[in-house]
Amino acid sequence: MYHFLVHKEVSLMISGLERYLNRVEDDTIAVLKLLVAGKTVEQISNELKIPLKKVAEIKEKFESS
After folding, report:
1. 2-to-13, 17, 36 alpha-carbon distances in Å
2. What are phi and psi of 21, to 5 degrees?
3. What's the gap between Cα 23 and its chain centre?
4. Where are the domains of the chain?
5. What angle do CA 59, 57, 62 make, to 5 degrees?
6. What is the pLDDT of residue 4?
7. What is the Cα Rg of the chain in Å?
């Protein structure tokens, strides 16, 4: 029974991580599309309802590549 509970807990953790990574990936793609379209960090933040700091970090990583 203990192994079942541990397995279920680990499965839930992995599932949560997958959802988080998918959300981060979706946010990053949306930010990059709007950057390419010429939007400012502030406009992107407002449009996507993502914190300015996060948008700026994505922009910085994109530009440094």
Report:
1. 17, 23, 51
2. -65, -40
3. 4
4. 2-64
5. 35
6. 67
7. 17
5 is written with which tokens? 């509970």
- Per-residue pLDDT for 6 more than 80? no
Q: Which two tokens stand for residue 60?
A: 């910085």
Q: Give the mean pLDDT of 35-41.
A: 97
Distance between CA atoms of residues 40 and 46, nearest Å:
10
Sign of the alpha-carbon dihedral angle for 16, 45, 49, 25? negative
pLDDT, averaged across the chain: 93
Token pair recorded at residue 49: 């309802």
Helix (H) or strand (E) holding 48: helix 41-48
